[in-house]
Amino acid sequence: MNQSHIIVIGDIIVDEFIWGSVSRISPEAPVPVVAVDRIDRRLGGSANVIRNLHALEANCAMVGVVGDDEPGQWVRQQLALLEANDSGIITKQNARPTAIKTRIVAHQQQVVRFDREETTPLEDATYQRLLASIEALLPHASAMIISDYAKGVLSLELVPQLIAMAGKIPTIIDPKPAHTASYYGASVVTPNLNEAAQMAQMEPINEDSQVERIARTLHENLALKQVLITRSERGMTLFDGQAIHHIPTAARDVFDVTGAGDTVIAAFTDAICRGATPLEAAKVANRAAGVVVGKIGTATANRSEIAVHNA
Questions:
Q1: Is 262 a catalytic residue?
Q2: Is the model's pTM score more than 0.85?
Q3: Given 3.30.559.10, 3.30.230.10, 3.40.1190.20, 3.50.50.60, which CATH number is that of 5-12+42-99+117-309?
């Protein structure tokens, strides 16, 4: 088993959870009143990929942007606890805050979510600083993950530069359909079915034959090495350039799919870096996803949990 050294580039988000219970409806409006029990935070967005890689005992570095605020400081503190390299994180001094998604959860169900974020593209000087940070990290990297949450860090112009900079090391992308053209020449994309269908301009029909057509279309149009499509209750489909592999779901109980895509790309990339074939890596990622959807909130899966889940 080779050790993996993975660069994660993308939109850093703080996932905030307000946990409580509902016993009545508000007299002010027809909405539930949540009695708050506790509040906690977790690294979200691209930073959740770091959490998943840490759970898999991978060495990793985070590249992105946070605000000059308390949540941004908290992000750096959490990355330090995970022993992740944060030299590629830029703290913005202007009015761009750290992105926060707040979820109110009662009786293990989300009641509402509200987002505080700025999604406009970064200034050119900031992009140049990001590129310089990545260039410094690349000599030690065994893979690059581009985690696109469409929050302004990954532009149509930046992503092709990242793919070119990566050279021969694998570039694995968790995509957003709006940026499809920028993914040309990447190693792998890992969209869910709806994203994949939008990227291929096809209908998101969750049948093997249709998913196969979508995967082949993306593979050809974007000159990819592999396409891994997640299909919810139908598991995953991998097209490795030669054959289609339909992998049945490993989920036993589904409580929350938040962050499951982060788990998939982290587990797949880590397995590739450790010498797995694309099919073996996809099966590992499938089992890891089966673990995290059985947990509430932004969760991770470690090696022991994945092994037990495979038993």
A1: yes
A2: yes
A3: 3.40.1190.20
